[in-house]
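Protein modeling request. Please complete all fields; requests missing the sequence field cannot be processed.
Requester role: graduate student
Desired output: 3D structure, token encoding
Chains: 1
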Amino acid sequence: MPEKPARIRYDCSKCPGYCCSYPRIEVKEADLRRLARHFSLTPEEAGRRFTRWYESDEGRERILRHNKDEIYGSICRFFDRKARRCTVYAARPDVCRDYPNGTRCGYYDFVSFERKHQDDPEFIPLS
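Delivered output (127 residues):
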């Protein structure tokens, strides 16, 4: 008998976009091509408009640019700050597709707990 897939225990649509506030959201070449197709651009133009290079001791990586955000300080440039949703969900980078790499999201568990105990379904813990 085939094994049942694990049940996902989080709902991104009920989260204010915590993972989208990570300062380094890596963009690989395949991600860049996907974004370019989404916007009818060349990969080079998409790279210039949407990404920047980040240098660290581990090397150089291409990451998504950010915009200012009233909740987290800064957030992915593709994040709708009013609706609190990704505007390029179908074209999002692989790192976003894979997050949180399991059936649970720690931040979702935390925000759900706080909303329940604050008796406020919209509560966003800021620190």
